[in-house]
Amino acid sequence: MSILDSITRAVPHVKKPDRPGSFEDKLKWTALIMVIYFVMFSTPAFGVNTSGISQTQLQILNIIFAARVGTLITVGIGPIVLASIVLQLLQGAGIINMDLSNPENKGKYQSIQKLAAILIAVVESVIFTLYGYVPVNPTQFLLIGSTQIPIAAVVAFQLAISAIFVVFLDEIMVKYGITSGINLFIAGGVSYSVIASTADIIIPSAANAITAGGAAALSNAVLAFGPLLSAIIVMLVSIYAYDMKVELPLAFSQFRGVGGRLPIPFLYVSVLPVILATSLVVSLTVWFTFLASIHSGPLANFAHFLGTYTTTSSQVNGRTVSSTNINGGLLYLISPTFPAPYPEPYGVGYAVYFNLLLTGTSTLYFPWGGSVLVPEWIHVIIYSLTLIILCIIFGRFWIEMTGQSPKNVAGQLQDIGWQIPGFRRDPRIIENVLDKYIPTITVLGSIAVACLAIFATLTGAVGSGMGILLTVGIMYMIYQQLERDNLLAGYGKLNEFLSS
User: Fold this and answer.
1) Alpha-carbon gap, residue 197 to 203, rounded angstroms
2) Domains in the chain, start-ordered, CATH in brackets?
């Protein structure tokens, strides 16, 4: 830890504001950061052949990491999320033992997380460049004076610098904006995906179905809107789930007659379990892309057990473009890798898609027993169970990490002076009462968001159902933040008192 402390001191930090910013100032900072994000979102990285990239195939990757492969935002928030996951696992395993209720330790923890995010940004930028996620001509060089620099190195450098810049944009948003940059970047990317998919895929497909005529013209046109309908269903169910809550009565111990309620929402940990769980699974499939190049040696059998990758080549504008995709192995079975069920010609079509889920197979290689064919419906079950279990684990872990556990909430209520009517004013009593609700609601809420994400993924909802789920949760959280900030903005003295 002493070594890490000396290293993290050299990492630049964004200075906290000297005083709490006004509501208008936060909106201005938020708008500025989102403009910068969308400029990067729309700017192709120099040396990348963006015409050879299928954003539809990379939709899950783009949404989870608030990215757009081929642009400056290719790596997105992946390093931030992955660094958070790794440190949480180390903290939970006791390898890093820091009391995060101590402001000094919390500051050190955040500095270590930022350093880890920067290192991961560099590594992921190299992986994206070397393994075909961004099409780069390996024989092309950039001539600077008399020095030839491989264009792949130039692309990797751009992606790394941009990813590091996103890390600091997120920090600026946290300290000066209305919410975290991660939240708004995801919501912005999903909103773009929904609009683009509807305009570029769904509406043209419906129009083509009607133009083609025939007895099935109308049904095919309606079916073309299936992905949009799935997204709307997930959105409505998510909004309903966010309004569900348990309210515990509270009384203020120092003043008789003053009371209130403690709301415990059904989605107590919001959509964070889905973000962390899916980010972990997708990151594993990206990080282990190097397995595609291992065909012999002592690691070959283990590599094939983890995942088998297929490299495909296609001609785009007279150039050969290669891409590497996972199609078998353990990582494939836990990944949300399914055919795109969009209407033709942008996907396989719903009829073919569901037939593939029922009759398709993938290969799972066992180092000690050869290969077996795994039905695709088994892939659906394993992916679903894995996502549910990971969401439960991350949900339970998140409430401990963020001070939302029964013990922490009881201590906070005790410090403020609240108590539950009919019980002694003792944090242990309050903790026992909260322990009957918070852990159960955390598990049920984590399962609910996992099931919504699974439904959306399997039905091919535009923006990915998980993206819709994330966006609804983020917008709901931002709405609450805006409502609170706008209220406080009208009461200067109250704002100053609460901020102190």
Assistant:
1) 9
2) 1-213 (1.10.3370.10), 280-379 (no CATH)
